[in-house]
Amino acid sequence: MAESLFIPTEASKEEKYGAILPQIEALISGEKDLIANLANISAVLKESFGFFWVGFYLVKDNQLVLGPFQGPIACTRINLGKGVCGTAWKENKTQLVPDVDAFPGHIACSSASKSEIVLPFSSNGEVAGVLDIDSDKLADFDETDQVYLEKLISILEKTM
């Protein structure tokens, strides 16, 4: 796939996801390097939706370690069960958080972050990392984001 992206400008959130998911799949399907794929996925999501922060944490030495991302600097390491990312990893379940200040144990990597969605992804039956997306707006994520981002995670897991 060429290094170009078609993002419908006057589209609903659902239409944008519908447009970018096949492009992401085409972009990463021929590439086996995980870091390259995570970097491109981060860039596509940031460019498509203008999220405050989009990135990945990878499980290494029993911690989540910062991987490819787009946005301001971030926490480098997160322990199992700590914050939204550590909880998604521990529970192996998407965390949809409309107000991060109301999430018990939230780790404030940036005070500008107001809402968050975190999705775990697996390799060989084990959580390998999480996709973390932050917004500087309260309640910016909903079930539409969850449904389409979980589809994205399925696409990613096929390449691992």
What does this structure look like?
By secondary structure, the chain is an alpha+beta fold. It has one domain: 2-Layer Sandwich (Beta-Lactamase). Helix content is 37%, strand content 26%. The protein has helices at 13-29, 34-49, 83-91, 143-159, and strands at residues 53-60, 63-70, 77-79, 95-97, 115-123, 126-135. A six-stranded antiparallel beta sheet has the order 3-2-1-6-5-4, with helices on both faces. Strand 5 and strand 6 (126-135) form a beta hairpin. Helix 1 runs antiparallel to helix 2 (34-49) and helix 1 (13-29) runs parallel beside helix 4. The two termini are 19 Å apart. The model has no long low-confidence stretch (mean pLDDT 94).
Query: If strands are numbered along the chain, what order do they take across the biggest sheet?
Result: 3-2-1-6-5-4
Broad structural category: alpha+beta
CATH topology: Beta-Lactamase
Number of beta-strand segments: 6
Helical amount among residues, as a percent range?
25-40%
Oligomer: single chain
Question: How would you sum up the global shape?
Answer: globular
Under CATH, the homologous superfamily reads: GAF domain
**Domain tally:** 1
Count of alpha and pi helical runs: 4
| Termini Cα gap | 19 Å
Family: Belongs to the free Met sulfoxide reductase family.
Protein name: Diguanylate cyclase
Pfam family, one: GAF_2
